[in-house]
What does this fold into?
Amino acid sequence: MKQKISVLMDGELFEDEADSLLGHIKRGSDVHNDWEIYHLIGDVLRQPEHIHCGLSDKVLERMQDEPTVLAPRVRPLKQRMRTIALSAAASLSAVGVVAWMSLQISPEVAPQLAMQQTAFRPASMQIKADSNDYLMAHQEFSPSADMNGGTSYIRTVSYSKDAAQ
Amino acid sequence: MRLQVVFCGLLLAVFANSHAEEIPASFDWLEVVAFAGHQTDYSGVYVYQYDNRVETSSIVHVTQVNGEYEKLESLDGPKREIISHDGKVWDYINHKMVLVGNNVHSGFPSLLPEQLSSLKANYKARMLGVERVAGYNAQVILFQPHDNLRYSHKIWVHTDSGLLLKAAVLGDNNKVAEQYAFTQLQIGGKIDRSWVKECDSAAQEKNMPDDHKDIKPINSGWVADMLPSGFKKTLEIERQMHGRHAPVTQMVFSDGLSSISIFIEPNDRDEDDEDGLSSRGAVNLYHKVLDKNLITVVGEVPPRTVMQVLDSVRYNGK
It folds into this structure.
């Protein structure tokens, strides 16, 4: 099972297998723990300064501290209106919770996602100094550089600095 | 029940609207920016950040009767001074001006109407409110492409002068691929112009080589079939490049915000590792040997785009 989780995290599991494994993870707490530990290991390897700190527990904790929305009691005659108001309030608070959660989660998750993205990006290699001629030649005739008005040589300074080194 | 659903939907819509302060922006802003960049006198310090590096440079830009003069000086690392005027780029080395480049399309209209329409077809512009940059109020505008073959561009435009105060190129996940921003800027007023005279006298002193001797427009017969939509050819030339014996063919394509250059030259190098992708900031470069030619594609576009373009390059005959 652990083997399978590892394969899934590497994105090498077939779709149907992945589906059944994910279902399994959702149901079984042991498997779920493994899943979390594997991610923790991955996070620490990739980004030791942002060590996983029980984000999901914290979100749950904070959600329990959220004030409950209390609607005032209305007369039974307006039962219909009340249902509407209550459901509206519920959907609003749901939106609120989602918005709040995304605010809470994004600063933590975003750098990790970004890290993974760069890891998977094929162009991790820096342009070599001997290719600077191409960059300068490209810059020289690039009409888009003109968008920056006069400051079209910003990259050129950088490129020619390399050439001088 | 249906009423309920409608009501909730309405509430959600109102909520979403009040949350997003985004108004569709006019592409006219780009014309304002291009115009202001050429016509305004200013001096300041900007930072340019790409990959894990940050570089600081100073810039002075003045407009005289005989054209624009611009001086750039790197403030960190090895000292470099670049002066540009009338499409010529000079390196200032040991109190001597050395001509390093020519820009044939100096005085080129900033933004051709054709490019503007291609921009509208391929990007969505949105106003993102006003922010402060270098002490000035700046209108923030985001240009988001409709496909994933180009990057998003975010610009901060001075609300009074139209000068570009900050610009960022956003890659996948809206991660900043590169950006530059003024940290200090003086617009108009007293600006040191003593170096302009130096530039003029140096230009006259030197027995100027024929401006475009090394560059001539051609019809090479090479084509690229898989350019992203909206990229139009703006240039096709044959040029001399440093360290090459044979002239290099260069084709430039632009969609108005980003551009792609294709270089074609005889492959006379011995190294086998020429194939491959490399990047710097928002610029990606892809090399490949095709028959006996070395093809290089460079552009401020994602890696997948330079690869796609290179793989579609072929000789169509003249």
In short: The first helix of chain A runs from residue 2 to 9. The mean pLDDT of chain A is 68. Helices of chain A lie at 2-9, 15-27, 29-46, 55-65, 79-120, 132-140, 154-164.
